[in-house]
Amino acid sequence: MSTMKYDFTVENLGECKVKSPIELSLDHGTFRAAYVKDSSFVRRQVNVFKDNDDAEDAKANNLEKAGPREYIYFNPAHVTAGICTCGGLCPGLNDVIRAVVRCLWNRYGVRRIRGIQFGYKGFFTEQGYETIDLNPDNVDTIHKIGGSFLGTSRGGGDRVNDIVDSIERLGINMMFIIGGDGTQRGALDIANEIDKRGLKISVVGIPKTVDNDLEFIDRSFGFETAVQKATQAVNSIHMEAHSQINGIGLVKLMGRESGFIATATALASHETNFCLIPEVPFDMDGPNGLLAHLEQRLIKRHHAVIVVAEGAGQELLTSTNQTDASGNKKLADIGIYLRDRITEYFASKKIHINLKYIDPGYEVRAAVTTANDSIYCERLGNNAVHAAMAGKTKIVIGLVHDKYVHIPISMATLKRNIVDPESSLWRDCLDATLQPVYMVNNINTVTDKLRKNADEAEAKALARLEKVTQMLKK
Amino acid sequence: MSTMKYDFTVENLGECKVKSPIELSLDHGTFRAAYVKDSSFVRRQVNVFKDNDDAEDAKANNLEKAGPREYIYFNPAHVTAGICTCGGLCPGLNDVIRAVVRCLWNRYGVRRIRGIQFGYKGFFTEQGYETIDLNPDNVDTIHKIGGSFLGTSRGGGDRVNDIVDSIERLGINMMFIIGGDGTQRGALDIANEIDKRGLKISVVGIPKTVDNDLEFIDRSFGFETAVQKATQAVNSIHMEAHSQINGIGLVKLMGRESGFIATATALASHETNFCLIPEVPFDMDGPNGLLAHLEQRLIKRHHAVIVVAEGAGQELLTSTNQTDASGNKKLADIGIYLRDRITEYFASKKIHINLKYIDPGYEVRAAVTTANDSIYCERLGNNAVHAAMAGKTKIVIGLVHDKYVHIPISMATLKRNIVDPESSLWRDCLDATLQPVYMVNNINTVTDKLRKNADEAEAKALARLEKVTQMLKK
Amino acid sequence: MSTMKYDFTVENLGECKVKSPIELSLDHGTFRAAYVKDSSFVRRQVNVFKDNDDAEDAKANNLEKAGPREYIYFNPAHVTAGICTCGGLCPGLNDVIRAVVRCLWNRYGVRRIRGIQFGYKGFFTEQGYETIDLNPDNVDTIHKIGGSFLGTSRGGGDRVNDIVDSIERLGINMMFIIGGDGTQRGALDIANEIDKRGLKISVVGIPKTVDNDLEFIDRSFGFETAVQKATQAVNSIHMEAHSQINGIGLVKLMGRESGFIATATALASHETNFCLIPEVPFDMDGPNGLLAHLEQRLIKRHHAVIVVAEGAGQELLTSTNQTDASGNKKLADIGIYLRDRITEYFASKKIHINLKYIDPGYEVRAAVTTANDSIYCERLGNNAVHAAMAGKTKIVIGLVHDKYVHIPISMATLKRNIVDPESSLWRDCLDATLQPVYMVNNINTVTDKLRKNADEAEAKALARLEKVTQMLKK
Amino acid sequence: MSTMKYDFTVENLGECKVKSPIELSLDHGTFRAAYVKDSSFVRRQVNVFKDNDDAEDAKANNLEKAGPREYIYFNPAHVTAGICTCGGLCPGLNDVIRAVVRCLWNRYGVRRIRGIQFGYKGFFTEQGYETIDLNPDNVDTIHKIGGSFLGTSRGGGDRVNDIVDSIERLGINMMFIIGGDGTQRGALDIANEIDKRGLKISVVGIPKTVDNDLEFIDRSFGFETAVQKATQAVNSIHMEAHSQINGIGLVKLMGRESGFIATATALASHETNFCLIPEVPFDMDGPNGLLAHLEQRLIKRHHAVIVVAEGAGQELLTSTNQTDASGNKKLADIGIYLRDRITEYFASKKIHINLKYIDPGYEVRAAVTTANDSIYCERLGNNAVHAAMAGKTKIVIGLVHDKYVHIPISMATLKRNIVDPESSLWRDCLDATLQPVYMVNNINTVTDKLRKNADEAEAKALARLEKVTQMLKK
Lengths: 474, 474, 474, 474
Known about the structure:
The structure is a homotetramer. By secondary structure, chain A is α/β, with parallel strands linked by helices. Chain A folds into 2 domains: about 20-220 and about 370-400, 3-Layer(aba) Sandwich (Rossmann fold); about 225-365 and about 420-440, Phosphofructokinase domain (Rossmann fold, 3-Layer(aba) Sandwich). The first copy, chain A, has helices spanning about 55-60, 95-110, 160-170, 180-195, 225-240, 260-270, 290-300, 335-350, 360-365, 370-390, 410, 425-435, 445-474, and strands spanning about 10, 20, 40-45, 45-50, 60-65, 70, 80-85, 110-115, 130-135, 175-180, 200-205, 245-255, 275, 305-310, 320-325, 330, 355-360, 390-395, 395-400, 405-410. In chain A, the strands form 5 sheets. The first copy, chain A, has a 9-stranded mixed sheet with strand order 3-5-20-19-11-10-7-8-9, sandwiched between helices. Chain A is elongated. The two termini of chain A are about 30 Å apart. Chains in contact: A-B, A-C, A-D, B-C, B-D, C-D. The interface between A and D is large, with 77 and 78 residues. Chains A, B, C, D: Its EC number is 2.7.1.11.
């Protein structure tokens, strides 16, 4: 498999000499929580094959545990914290903001907390956005509504100098950045610029990706809520399809490069017949293509539900070669493509169908968190504060085997997590949909292509790792 | 105002000689429900102006009360009932089906109840759909899921002879037809053909229009549920708009010719800034056009939410001149039009906006009923059964001043109910959105146009009334 | 039937000479809302029996239409409005508060709006509660959470002098009081004391009764939401009962003297087998008692769901002879009684049952409104403001035949609305539950008792009417 | 720490010689799912302390991976499967049943699947319950409703001989038992009796405990749904408390010996001020008791919310010394106790409070699963089928580090999982509620007691382990 040698060493701003104001136990066995030590780790690798002991490898892959330290780097009285949310909406943004503010205020006694408005753009003086002073009162009920209390926007992470200038001007020495892949890479650049200027400012990220495509972590916040909402949408469209002559429900869900939302929704809805994701190519035509299988399904059951991730089947479409403000490739629209191709196909066969196409994306993104997601956001926020107070920097908070850890941003952004077609998750999804393993006419072409994709992704990640390693050496 | 003379006389198949198997009281004051008499009516007109007593007119407008009769026309042992659902989905279809089946079975002891599949098409032999035998067991839990248990389809109501042939072949002597305007006109044609053949078959409609555009009745079933769902969609898009720089949320809702769903949703969401409905024309451009007002709103509040009924602003669009299978005019897409025009406008002004456009229609149509809607469906179904058992025909069941009544199909389909721009409903909507009364540059043109529209609608209804009256004379 | 002669004449503070700042049309036919005239009424009586014309009577029963008047009594610049919420929680309190504040502020330009905290107690100086200054910003999102933004409490309406002193001290000349029966009687006393002191202060009530027991109006706000929530609770308990051997689900719902919530919930849930309400007495024992029927149901179907209103079956219990702070009679607990009696009965018969008893009251009362309820609250609030601005006083806002009207508090509190056992509502409820019309062993005793109850209620109302009439003459 | 040596070796019925009908890949790297090998394990221990390498220990604690095997033990054509659900309701029962049925039917082609009604009691001939033949059609929509499609009951697991007789009589050779701690111990006894009789019947458990108190596994199914529902209840009661003068909301939640639901609900609600769980003792009286802290909270904030697990504070109550049918100790009612003590306390201090007490247990247990829980149930069910087909027996399916594994019932039932007061979960809960770490007056007494409890639990588990080990040796 992968030959990458990860380095999960966490960077610190300096020695921790300030006694934490949180009173915890110094040791275990006292029936109250103890401080977490920097020598506590979580093992990343848990798969064991009897004939192939990975103990050696596992040690290299340990992740530093998150949590409150006995000695911290910052004197709370001198802390000015900043928080910003970047990129698209995702359920839970407000829950995270609220947790960061409350932990800073209630646990550490920090009294200067600045909310940066509308993502990185809030740092740019020409935009004229003021910061919002945050405290437990004005964030008290924000978790009950969706969206971002601070506002968000895409892009801007490349204007590193402007951002650091602004951070200096605001007197911020602890910056919490909630955002995705691109945002966190920006955060790393910002932290490196901070280093270069010799400043002591902690940069801690809380990774946000509704697509759940972050490597290493169990899941991203907002993902479960997204699946909950998406499942309701699929259930609606299923009722519609089921009530029509040859009803076809087509639902496009989020998932640019990773089909986790589509896969989980297919499993949770129990009513999806075809789940199409970026990781698993498919043909439209031919005896083993989607259209033929869809026709078979209609003959047998008179209705069908298709769930498609927005990044699925891109190879079937004319590329757009455009990017959005976050630097993400603009995808051609697979939903429209499928709608039109399916309509044409059955029209040409003189089969009357009733196709309904929906894209519930915005409702999914703006949803209020489920209880479990809300807990996750609260705990991510708390741990981000503990990390920043201890002078940790250039990290994101992650959840690994249900434990909170520090992951260097450099590692967290190496490559995306994808739905492994060999995984039990996808296997269970196929069992739920009863769709063919591959809807393609020449399986060899596909596996060749998948191998090529995997190799390219690996090479890209290695190149990034190399770059990061060089940077660290400097 | 209107000069129409309605005739709400209900047609019967013949004299009722069968004692009802339901044991009710014969009189009031017994502390148990009494049979409803054919001499019980509900006054339609309740507005009173002191100087203009309408007592005379009111009497002419009485509506026959629905409910179980002491003597019924059909011997339950000889009844074969048929049920079909036609047209688009609407919340509550299954609740109505369930109520009809349960009332027939439990209250009257009817044991032959046939569900026609997929609307009027289920009658056509070449389609090959079999009927479903319905009983309290197989409809027991169908109200818990959306859609139509029987399936539905558009159109087919013009093949009157085929349908009556099929009804005869199935031995049905009591036909329940759940559907909209077009469907009910078809039902009237069917009932007239039944008359012509000298058959004794009751045709009772349950009016279904998620748009709530039926004249005379308080509201249509499914409407409240639709508004509940639509309100949730608007709340989502509001969160999205609120979290973005110059965020604009644009929501297209159902409402081809009547803006009730949009109006009620704007009121219920409390977060709509512009509500656009077919009944109130608007200009895009000019100092008092939508675009100028939208720009003002963004300057003041940095975000905006627009709710638009699908039939709004049709005069701004190039007509499609097409109709769907139900005979409804295919509307040009105002949602897409607004999205594109707004995007162009702000691009040309170099104002950065974030516009999100959603059309939650299918989720709204497939929803499970709210409690109140479910009660309404149950009571509509019960009263439809009571009416049919008493030999009433060519009627729909309506709710007038919270009382269930029989309305001749001929009257119910004369014209559509619309949002009156002079009504307190629209006044309260304007108070909720704080939008201008008319976003037009020349108010006279608009009022002239509205007057012309109203006159045309009135003339059309009069013509229909004339036709119906002629028919009745024959 | 009733021999009462109602008097729906609305009292005014004085002549309206101030031109309304709301610009409406002066006449109909202009395609924009017109001012409502004091000569517009809504007919209360809509039942018509052919041989018994009620035109005469109907005229006496006209209710004054609510809405904005062309000329108003108060100069908005001189208005100080007060709002308070009294009694138990009810869904929609915050929606009403928000609407009153927004209509005062946005439509009339009123800038001094004082929220009284914790009901009438907020007026008592010894409690030390300050008023909250209300404006569209601080009430902007309160409709998204349940409860009362102002807080509420029971009782205190009898300290009329203290309250009017406090109103004078606060300089309030327009008082909005949201509360139930007892609260509104207090409001009338307050308004009478205001009269006595020669003050010009408008007192407008918004009637709040989750039990829906207010005479004359279509329904009370919060009622639909309560039924929605209660239906969910019944569905849960039904699942529980259905999954157990001889599972019995017992749900106690609100309804001290009127069983509307229980009745509507039984209808909406479609899974209730016995619905017990105060208006319909029942026996526990004997061949036609509840226990015998429950046993029959278990034998046939192995599970059962019972919905009971808190005021049902009080004659079976030992009276408590206590009242709560609102002056309501403290009811003995029918839920506990039923639970214990049913348990004993089946234990004595050695029949194994699984009984689960729940009282979801507080969840129901604290719920966020459904869309339809929220619209209703908004429009009640708007119309309350229009009424107060026009100098109307001693009235509550009501909804009659879907039209908003002014009802004198003296009439609105004459007697409670109850579920009429002869009504089609109860008839449809019996059809839904399939329970016997009366579960009693001697029907004559019961009807005698019901007649006696009805006579007593009528006599009590007549006495109140007499008292009110005397008061008006003075 | 613990000195227990677990043995996670999985027992098999015999050699697997039947080629699986599921076509999977034989190896990794093929871009399709491969069969899972018996040599695949998941490491249980993931905590790493730098100075204390646990590699050695970890190896001893490996758990066998679940999933489809290439060769299976049973010939699908000869399989008769049985399913039963035991104990109290829990969200997800129907989702699990559905998944087991569909995987057996669709993936393995098994056609004889018998649903045992009402738990273990369904096996007892004197009860007269027939089995229900299950297939994908009759379980198709059962996941949309709560409860158990098969019915459930407590107890009966001790009548091992009767149960095995019945299993033989029904010809079942694959038994799926969904139930909690006591049920699974019963399942082990059943499997041992099967062994003794020399039968080849696989017994596979799916552990059900809404309290989430199962050792080793990440979480139990239904737990997240329970927390979702409980959080809604807490939010309601918070609104009530917040709207009253000195409003106190008291919510009793499930959790006999483990406070996971209460803890997670306190975190998710963000509105809980005191979270009381069995694992953390508290005093009522004294300067550091609950009552004093509650009084302080009311003085500062005028309202408070208390969440209490049913098993909390048992030391304060008079023991009942009774057990229910499942053999669980009947707990004295801490909710009632708290309600009464709080009421008395403030009455004695002449402080007016408004206390509302709710127990939303049944609504929580009967809820429909969240999307994430539904996925979990589906995958548990699939893996249970894969295990049984491969002849695995005496195991339950577990989720460990997000991977599905086989856990011997003997290990899974050794001891309960509890909320560790030293864990980061409880630490974050304290941060959320801001309650004191311990509300006791003498901390030493408490830690002594906790140590004693822990030692006793450990000794009990060791004794069980000893017993199990002896049994295995035989």
